[in-house]
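Schema walk-through. Below, the input block comes first and the output block second. Nothing else is stored per chain. Lengths vary across the set, and this one has 524 residues.
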Amino acid sequence: MSRRVIFLIVLILLFILVGPVALAMDPDPTGASTGTSIDVPATHPGSPTIEELANTIGHNRVAINFVWTLIAGFMVMFMQAGFAMVETGLTRAKNVAHTMAMNFMIYSLGMLGFWICGFGFMFGGVGPFSTLGGFNGLNRELTMTLFGKPFGLIGLKGFFLNGSVYDVAIFTMFLFQMVFMDTAATIPTGAMAERWKFSSFMVFGFFISMITYPIFGNWVWGGGWLSQLGRNFGLGHGHVDFAGSSVVHMVGGVTSLAGAMILGPRIGKYHNGTVKVIPGHNIPMAVTGTFILAFGWFGFNAGSTLSGTDLRIGVIATNTMLASAAGALSATLYMWWKFGKPDPSMMANGMLAGLVAITAPCAFVNSLSAVIIGGIAGILVIGSVFFVDRNLKVDDPVGAISVHGVNGAWGCIALGLFADGRYGDGLNGVAGGVRGLFYGDPSQLVAQLTGVVTNLIFVFTLSYVFFKILDRVVGLRVDPISEVEGLDIPEMGVLGYLDVKMRKEEINYDEIVSVGKERYHEKN
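--- output ---
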């Protein structure tokens, strides 16, 4: 195929995706008509008409939802600072600039990837967002028929936020969903910290935001097949994930598992059958980052109503807070009992585990259930950290696989157990509130387990293949000398801390370099 033909094809595709599109239904890029039943009429010279009052009330109601959704999105965006501090604090000082840089750049990489096609793949066929005005521009889903039922697979509209979706509701939803995607994308930067080559990380940022996250997200939040398990097969309300235990956290955690397995452990982590603890350099930074994350989580969970007029936000926020406290306390007491001392890093991970676990069921459970869910998460994260570290021999410097992957799965299962039926009437097209096993609907638990297993198989397989290919083409890992001396200068060109002095590790320096060189040459 000649270069001219390829160039012509690219131009045609760009015109289709970005150019102006003739519409049967016009978007509302100014917001003037959003929330009104008819076009906003001219100001009445006398008393307002019933139509004018109705339009004003409708417009203001939607405006409240817009403001709430955007503020919640801004809070979730600030969580990126929390992740950067947690991950950097729990790793070594010689890699500060590198770890911070990954957490910083994933925001830009993920946003642009999501803008290019991630948002379209995820929400291109979702239909109208009723709380944001009801614009129905996202109306094209790739669907296949199995067992006589429609299975939504991927959205096909909204790429580049082009002219066909140039609407205030769509842009608001893009911002809110983009920061959720960014949370999933930043989780592997902790699990793969201290040895990940920055160039391959850059490629990964586009991959997860354009492919992995949006496809699974479509199946749960974009009207895809997992969300329709209730309507199609009578499994509760389908796979329900209110704010992202599976869509966000489990995607990030499972991706971390695949990446860390292929990347391999840090030099010196495992030696002669022993597991070496490599402590982080700044516990205050990690704990402060955890508090930032806990604050942003109120936007994460309560904001997922997409409605400031849905008063359930009070229950959601309180459940979120209670689960985080229970997770922190149970992790603290468990570490104290098992090892004789409470570990501040595990306190932080316990709180985060509680937050991850309550993310799916936060809108559907009562306060007692929230405490139970968070408390179990705090203990589960500790057991998982040691299992991954000692049994699987997967080196995860910050415990991301356990915090987000394992407790993301637990959060979805918890919904299938504890949902009390008080909320969710009509969700995913199913009448009645969402009920779990303990409140009379075992089929909801089946739907939740189906989503968890699907996530594990799909995300792990796709991520594993991607990282394998990336390792062959670009290379995942830095050279062993750079890894031992610190990644800040070799990868970033600057030191994170100017007064940090490089020192020999506890293991003999020559031995570490020898092992590292051998591993590096085997991989390359």
